[in-house]
Amino acid sequence: MELRKYLLPGLISVTLLSGCSLFSGEEDVVKMAPLPKVENQFTPQTAWSTSVGDGVGDFYSNLHPAWQDGTVYAADRFGVVKALDASNGKEKWKVDLSEKTGFFSKNISALLSGGITATSDRIYIGSERGQVFALNNSDGSIAWQTKVAGEALSRPVVSDGLVLIHTSNGMLQGLDQSTGAIKWSVNLDMPALSLRGESAPTVAFGGAIVGGDNGRVSAVIMNQGQLIWQQRISQPSGATEIDRLSDVDTTPVVVNGVIYALAYNGNLTALELRSGQILWKREIGGVKDMVVDAGRIYLVDQDDRVIALNADGGVAIWRQSDLLHRNLTSPALFNGYLVVGDSEGYVHWINTLDGRFVAQQKLDSDGFQTDPVVAGDKLLIQAKGGEVYAITR
Q1: Order of strands across the sheet with 182-187?
Q2: What CDD domains does the record tag this protein with (predicted)?
C-alpha cells in the first residue's frame, strides 16, 4: 500500500490508495503559518516567464526544469516537453509524449513525473507509467524509450554510461545510456506503507548511493549492479502508521567521503562513504532535498522549518520557523542566499549567516512544489500550473 501526497493550499493532505484508515479519532488540522512580513533588502527581478503545458495540478510530482548549455528544458505531467532559450525564455522546440488515440479522441496523458535530467546531447525524463524517455537535445525526438520496473517518480541520474532509475516499488535499475537497455536491477526492499516519492541516487567513486522507503541508505557498485552495503538511519516507531513512516526520499549528498542523508520521521545522518558506518545523527526528519556547502547543511524539515547545521557534527547554527506548514520546496543556494518557494506562490530569500529573511516575492497564484534550479545567473522555478519563471538577483 503506497501513500499518495496531494499538496493543497494551507496543508498537506494524505490519501491512501487502498482506502484503509490510518487515523483513530478526529484528524488533526495543520494550520499554515501566516505570511511573514519582510522588508526587502533588494528586489528580485523576473527575467522572463513562460507556460509549459498545464503543469501538475495538485498531484505529487518531482517535475522541475533542467538547464544545459544555454537551454532550459521543462515539462508538464500530460506529456508536453519544451526547450527554451535560457536568455529570454523563447521556445526552441516542443514535443508531446502523450499517447495518441485517434483523430477525435484526447490523447492519453504520459503522466510525466521524474526528471528532467539534461546532459550534453540528451535529456531524460520518467513517468508514472514506468516509462523512461531519452530525448535528443537538438529537436526533442525520442532517442529511446524503456519500460522500467515501476513508476519513475524521482529524476533519472546519468553517470558512467548508465541512466539510474529508482522506481516506486523499491527497484534501482541501471539503463544503458546509449540504448536504454536495462543492464541490471537491484531490489532495495520496501515496507507495506510508504510516502509517495523516491530518493534519486547520487554517485561517487563508481558507486550509487540511494535512500529507500525502508529507512535505509544503500550503496551499489554501478558497473556490476551489486549491493555493497546498507545502513538503517530511521527506525519505525510511534502509535500510528503515519508516525512509523521512515522513508528516505531525499537525495543523499556526498562531500569529502561523507554521505549526508535525511529520513522522514527519522534522522539527519552522516555516514562513512566506503563502509556506511554512522558518524553522527540528529533527530531531524524531512522529505526535501538538502544543500551542503562550505561546511554547512541547509535543509527544510517535515514541518517546514528551514535549518542550517554544521556539517561536521550536525550542530544547529540557526532555525527559521516563520514558514511552518507552508509546504516549502527544497532549498536552493543562489547568489549567496538560500531560496525556497511555497504552496501559495511566494519565493523567500534567506540570509545564510543568520536565517533572517532578506527578500520576498509573490510570483504565481498556483504555488510551487518542486526544487528551484540554478541556471548560471538565473534561478528557475516551475509553478504547479506549468509556468516557468527565471529570476535574477
Answers
A1: 157-159, 162-166, 171-176, 182-187
A2: BamB_YfgL
